[in-house]
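[Meeting: bench + compute handoff]

Bench side (C.D.) handed over the final construct sequence. Compute side (W.E.) agreed to return the predicted structure before the next meeting so the bench team could plan truncations. Sequence as handed over:
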Amino acid sequence: MTAQDNTEADLWPSVERAQQALSEFGVLTEARTIRFQRMLPGPIERVWAFLTESDKRGRWLASGPMELHVGGKVELNFRHAELCSPAGTPPEKYRTLEAGFTTYGRITRCDPPRLLSYTWDQGSGVASEVAFELSPRGEEVLLVLTHRRLGDRAMMLSVAGGWHTHLEILVEDLHGREGPPFWSRHAALEAEYQRRLPVE
């Protein structure tokens, strides 16, 4: 091995870490569609429970009943103050959400424990759709989250920062650790997506 080979070998871990850090950010896959990927500790049935069971889902996203069949009702009760302690104070534009809010949808696809998708009421009259795809990877599980038919750029930025923050809380919870304060983390990530996502 040459000195150059040694240098490249020494650099590889930092390059790999950088690539992993970049992959944590959601990417636009088509117009008004953003996708996230996360490696989660398995088994797959455990991750599925965190997507579908109200008490577990409420620890990282939102609680509420979910009828696990196509056409089934979805109720999501967001209580950000209960996700982490402390949750922090929401920015002014999200102040009306401080006490929580509820949104509704319908299951569009359901194939336990690998695929779940449902509509998401954005309050704009046009429902978006979020899909969760799970694939075993040894002792871990690859989660691919895709949110389609998002509204304007402001909605894209809010959703990107929101999903990124919720997924960080999910990862930490599955590892038995406390997640970040929701609102300060969301604000920082929304600002980062403002920089990352292209202006139409």
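W.E. noted at the follow-up: Confidence is low (pLDDT under 50) at residues 1-22. C.D. will use this when planning the next construct.
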